[in-house]
Amino acid sequence: MKKSSLFVVVGALLLSACSTTSASNTASPSSASxxxxxxxxxxxxxxxxxxxxxxxxxxxxxxxxLFAINAGSQVVAVDNQSNFPANVPASDLSGFTPNLEAIxxxxxxxxxxxxxxxxxxxxxxxxxxxxxxxxxxxxxxxTYAQTKELGQATGHVSEASTLVASMQxxxxxxxxxxxxxxxxxxxHELDNTMYTVTSSTxxxxxxxxxxxxxxxxxxxxxxxxxxxxxxxxxxKANPSLIFLADSKCCSVxxxxxxxxxxxxxxxxxxxxxxxxxxxxxxSRWGPRTPLLYQSIAEAINKASSK
Length: 306
What we know:
Elements: H1 3-17, E1 26-27, E2 37-41, E3 44-48, E4 55-57, H2 60-68, E5 75-78, H3 100-105, E6 110-113, H4 120-126, E7 131-133, H5 140-154, H6 157-176, E8 185-189, H7 202-209, E9 213-214, H8 231-237, E10 241-244, H9 247-250, H10 254-258, H11 267-270, E11 274-276, H12 279-283, H13 289-304
Helix pairs in contact: 5-6, 6-13
């Protein structure tokens, strides 16, 4: 695996986790369906005078949200990590190293970011470009709030509400499909250097919702939310289930996993309970989150039936 790919996989999560911006942003109730819209975001009031027609998204999750609420036709450019849906207006813009000149050159009337890196929010605001910061969610409520906020910012209030309701229905359906976890424990792998997530993170909280015991919660660096485990630690913890969110980035699968020192004896491997997730779905907190719930539910039911 290339180092650059590793930084994308782990770095994005760590940067978002370290963001000090609240994800629970609110919009002015009086401007829910008309413009101008005033939104309380990033400890400031963002005024969007008219329905934006030239949106730039520097966040893969925000990109997915915008297209899912039918605001895709208003998006003129997305960052180089936004790859879903397939028809996104790709560009070489970066959310990790935002370039003010390159962004302004595209004449946006709204920019969405996940982190205020290199003081990009103040710089764009000075250039009279409204900016919304939508940081990594820590709860589903954060995801729903961001979806509705983008709906208000783009003039797609009803579509955003419909999407949230649909997500809630699908997630409940997935959770209700699981009858028992039978004391199962879990290891979620972010990349092939064994970075993982604890229950305090967005993804980790999903496993906790299902009642799974996360082996990372007792690790030495658990407080970070994204500890790097050793092979010895994982072998000793002996998880019942292993979820791989590094099949795309790092070509990890059950076969390659079993070749690591001591891993062949792991319960998850010997019992066939290694499950591959879509890297992107497992690292974003957007409209495809119900698919992650469904994948986890199916895996639990498969393991419990053995």
